[in-house]
Design a protein that fits this description.
Number of helices: 10
CATH class of the largest domain: Alpha Beta
Helix content: 40-55%
Strand order of the largest sheet: 2-3-4-1-5-6-7-10-11
Number of strands: 11
Distance between the termini: 19 Å
CATH superfamily of the largest domain: P-loop containing nucleotide triphosphate hydrolases
Radius of gyration: 25 Å
Oligomer: single chain
Bound molecules: guanosine-5'-triphosphate, magnesium ion
Low-confidence stretches: none
Length: 338
């Protein structure tokens, strides 16, 4: 299977989108848990690796994304098997809050209406002190949650469905510093997401709430941080979530193909029996042969769908392990991938 998936990130300026992209690419291009990501264009691969090296060697952070958004065509693989072709776009945060007449803001609106997955960035720095009844209003304003919600609603009404959502809680090191119990920190991210972005918990929406961190980077000085503090965490999970979505879809299609094949087969077998038993069966040799051929072909197709279904199930089980600690919500209910 290889599908083309369009991913768009929303989030305010300096919320950590580009730094996340760098960390995600560096982690997955080297390979993580048997999954790999690479840019097909070798120059692009070089650009991303050089930016990552600058962060790892000198603590140099990526510059703000310019007005012209940058496109990243990626290939996502399990081992050597190509799973997804990904079309990733990195926008400057300002495009989200500018008037939609600004050229990149305008492009963002149409881009979102063609997106399979939208990442809604929640800047973890805003959650570092915890979110209570009062402060969530401030966090909502500062994350531009109402604007992100508008973009999602707009895309959904143009698409006729809601793209899958990832609530990317960036700079999670800042939340973890306040809440050292890992599981409790994740729960606090879910609570914050519920308060700030309730759209992710609506009926018809599938959303991964994913805390990510590039490490305890501290305050940058002259756009530099301590390179030894760089330690990416969970940055590859949203990519696996894309694949999980594609897998679930593929499993559904295969199951319905198997069911349709089975009913065809029963019909053909019945017709064959009728032909054999009939009084004039002796004259119907050619038709019986044709039906027998048809039945054999359908049986082969069912067998092939069955094999693919089993493969998809094995892949889903592998993915399920990856999401043991991470919350996925469908129609507002927490679900497990199995
Ligand atoms: N503590 C901490 N700080 C981070 C992390 N990721 C990013 N930052 C800080 O956030 C700043 C902004 O990150 P960017 O990735 O450039 O933000 P952006 O969302 O791409 O911003 P625009 O391109 O302007 O839209 C960085 O310069 C870092 O100082 C992280 O995981 N932890
Ligand atoms: Mg950026």
């Amino acid at each position: 299977m290889s599908d083309r998936i369009t991913v768009t990130m929303l989030g305010t300026s300096k919320s950590g989108k580009t730094t996340y992209l760098l960390g995600m690419y560096a982690t997955l291009s080297a390979g993580q848990d048997g999954f790999f990501l690479h840019a097909d264009d070798p120059d692009l691969d070089l650009d991303l690796s050089e930016s990552w090296d600058a962060l790892m060697d000198e603590g140099l952070l990526p510059p703000p994304t310019p007005n012209e958004p940058k496109t990243y065509p990626f290939v996502f693989k399990s081992g050597l098997t190509r799973l997804l072709d990904i079309d990733w776009l990195d926008y400057r945060g300002g495009a989200m809050t500018d008037r939609t007449t600004a050229s990149d803001a305008e492009r963002l609106v149409s881009r979102l209406a063609a997106s399979d997955s939208i990442y809604l960035t929640l800047d973890g720095a805003l959650l570092a002190q915890g979110v209570d009844e009062r402060s969530f209003l401030t966090a909502r304003r500062h994350t531009k949650a109402e604007r992100m919600t508008w973009f999602v609603q707009n895309a959904a009404s143009k698409l006729g469905r809601v793209p899958s959502l990832v609530v990317l809680v960036t700079k999670f090191d800042l939340v973890a510093a306040r809440c050292p119990d890992g599981a409790a920190a994740v729960e606090s991210a879910i609570d914050a997401a519920r308060d700030i972005l309730p759209i992710a918990f609506e009926t018809g929406v599938t959303a991964l709430i994913c805390p990510v961190s590039l490490g305890d980077l501290g305050m940058p000085v002259a756009e530099r941080v301590d390179p030894t503090s760089v330690a990416p965490r969970w940055v590859h999970k949203p990519m696996l979530f894309l694949d999980a979505g594609a897998q679930i879809q593929e499993q559904r299609e295969l199951a319905s193909r198997m069911a349709a094949g089975q009913s065809n087969l029963s019909e053909t077998t019945y017709e064959l029996a009728q032909l054999k038993n009939g009084f004039f069966s002796i004259f119907r040799g050619a038709e019986m042969e044709r039906k027998q051929g048809e039945a054999a072909r359908t049986a082969e197709q069912i067998e092939a769908a069955h094999r693919n279904h089993e493969r998809a199930e094995r892949q889903a089980a592998r993915l399920a392990e990856q999401f043991a600690d991470l919350p996925i919500f469908a129609d507002g209910e927490r679900i497990a991938i199995a």
